Amino acid sequence: MQVTSRRFKEGAHDALHDKNIQQAFSKVKSGFPVARAKSASELPEFEELRDSARDLKNHILENLDYYLEYFEEQVQLQGGRVHWCSSYAEAREVVLHICREAKAKTVTKGKSMITEEMALNDYLSEHGIEPIETDLGEYIIQLAHEYPSHIIAPALHKTKDQVTELFHENHGKYGFNERLTDPQALVNEARSVLRDKYVAADVGITGANFLIAETGSTVIVTNEGNGDLTQSLPKTHIAVSSIEKVVPTLEDASLFLRLLARSATGQEMSVYTTFSTGPKRMEDIDGPANFHVVLVDSGRSDLLGSDKQDLLRCLKCGACMNHCPVYQAVGGHSYGWVYPGPIGAALNPHMVGLEEARHLPNASTFCGRCEEVCPVRIPLPKIMRHWREQAFETQVTPKPERWGIGIWAFFAKRPKLYRLMTRVSARALKLMAGKKGVIHKLPLMKGWSSVRDFPAPEGATFMEQWKKQQREGK
């Protein structure tokens, strides 16, 4: 997919003035966050589980090579095959080769963020293979020729009326000519359209929430059952996963599963949790004849041992964005790449380059809610702060911003001069505001004063007020 992170400010501005996006995202605050809080409160050991999950993830990352090789051994013992890919390009070529071996004309796909990273759908289409998204949200945005605005709810930015129009425009060729408005009727219509495609598909592609080293199994978590049909009906199943998804044992997977759904949607468990272990065996009623796991690095291993390694703990639950006031205001597409919200602001600069994504670490109030709700306690504000520092040090930050910070630093290192300047500035701003106490336009503060009034100081600085109270014995 095309990276547009450098246009974050423009994208955010457009989203703030888009009535459909504002209508769609207005429900986020009262949806996922409320459900998560309720679900977490009903599990007394929830916080202890978060600590255990964080520690286990750290152990896995310290021994990642061992667990990945162990996983490959077990996949091979079960009759499957693992493909190691260092880049998106290599992974796309491997998937295409497998599809051509299967003589595939159509491919059904379960929800997968790593295939979004790879832009796999476009690649397959360019080479004559039709990819069909089967997750309802992914199916909607595929019809709209868009990309996900949320990790677990890809079409969160779409209103019901927009979905109605999409289905009406695209489903006439399948005999659906009525413009439906009832949500359940829309779901049923999508299911009817997709049903034949499941059966006709030559290859099924899924992601993987977890890779279990001790059994060579892949695990997917869904609420629709589409993942099960995608990986069991075609003759070939390809599971595409990034390398950090491996866990040592089935018991370890259960720890993460207890946290994942609660953090993502507020459910105790997702409706479907499916384990796939190798191709179909003689005694199996159904299942794929061929089983492939495509492991994608694409920069993950560069995070190991760095000050941003904690990002590899991410379970892709979306809790951080569900609770982020910036994400709730500007939506997911403003971030300009696969991962929006706080995890995007922390991860995308590494994945697409700091110069491209330099605005994202600044798209945070540093309220700390993202770290507060992360099931594996990723210090997202700390990582965003690291990116800000790195942008300044490498001169990715524009010169005016660097000069402004440099001027502030000059005074901040000289307390007496700093206090003098704050006194002068406070009084100057008070004079500019006049009797109303607000400033409508402020030089060098266009980003603030173009959309809101700037409240002027009352005149005295904090230090002056503090000293006055001390003298008066308050």
From TrEMBL:
Residues 305-335 form the 4Fe-4S ferredoxin-type domain. GO terms for molecular function: 4 iron, 4 sulfur cluster binding; metal ion binding. GO terms for biological process: lactate metabolic process. PROSITE patterns: 4FE4S_FER_1, 4FE4S_FER_2. Gene3D superfamilies: Alpha-helical ferredoxin, NagB/RpiA/CoA transferase-like. It comes from the Bacteria. Keywords: 4Fe-4S, Electron transport, Iron, Iron-sulfur, Metal-binding, Repeat, Transport. The keyword Metal-binding applies. NCBIfam families: LutB/LldF family L-lactate oxidation iron-sulfur protein (TIGR00273). This is Iron-sulfur cluster-binding protein. It comes from Sneathiella chungangensis.
